[in-house]
Amino acid sequence: MNLNMTEKTFNKYFNTFLLVGMTICVVVACILNLQKGETAPWLVILSSVGALMGVISVILSANGNILTFVFGLIDVLIYSYTLLDQNVPMTLGLHVLYFIPMEFIGFYNWRKRGASTKEAVKARRLDAKGWGKVAILFVGVYGLMLAIAYLIARHQGSINPAKMAFDCAVTTANVVALVLMAKAYTDQWYLWTLVNITSIILWIIVLTSGEGSSYTVVQLIKYIFYFLNGLNAIRIWLKLSEKNDILDK
Q1: Between 123 and which of 43, 104, 215, 240 could a Cys-Cys bridge form, CB atoms 3.0 to 4.6 Å apart?
Q2: Residue 193 neighbours by CB under 8 Å, 6+ apart
């Protein structure tokens, strides 16, 4: 579905605002990390480049542009390398075994639904049956994440049920939302919005508790921009999907 000229103009300026704002956040975060000197400078810069690729990816995704998976893949590859360097096998495994393959699956599915660098994907919406399947998937993934988190926490000798439940819920929302994204469902953005809201709350709690730093402010602002992008994405995708049949597969 082609957007009218007024809407295209709005999206152009809104996306520019988001890109500039989030790029500033990434640059500030990079400078702060370089000043700390806790990580090799080249790794800090590489991570910042990856984060910027992620910023571009989410903006393209909001507009139904297939290049979201190209920039998303670069982001995930760079982040996976940094995880390898930091020796965090569980998170690394999630990115290598799930997030990277999903970039290719999403690209393939979007191509089948008419997406290109010039044409937005033919979005669709879940019906009641589809939401039922999503609910079952969410519960299943959440249970798996809780089990893994519990085993890791028990091995480390430190179990925090509240933190564990919250972290697993956010991770599950990310996993399920990526499935909906790969299959071009508009409803993905409701989950991304949930992820962004919980992340904003988390960083506010860290900031007000006095445990955070100037880097915490950068993270908070970044997720506020992500939240705004998600709201705009809901508006765009509802329009993209309004002429398509409601599918549940």
Answers
A1: 240
A2: 227, 230, 231, 234
204 in Cβ contact with 220 (< 8 Å): yes
For the CA atoms of 5, 236, 202, 81, the dihedral, rounded to the nearest 10 degrees, stands at -90
Q: Which tokens go with 24?
A: 């500033």
**CA–CA distances in Å: residue 127 to residues 82, 186, 187:** 39, 11, 10
Give residue-wise pLDDT tens across range 198-246.
Answer: 888 888 887 787 655 666 777 788 889 999 999 999 999 998 888 665 4
Contacts of 135 (CB under 8 A, 6+ apart): none
For residue 129, the model assigns a pLDDT of 93
CA atoms within 13 A on the CB side of 166: 10
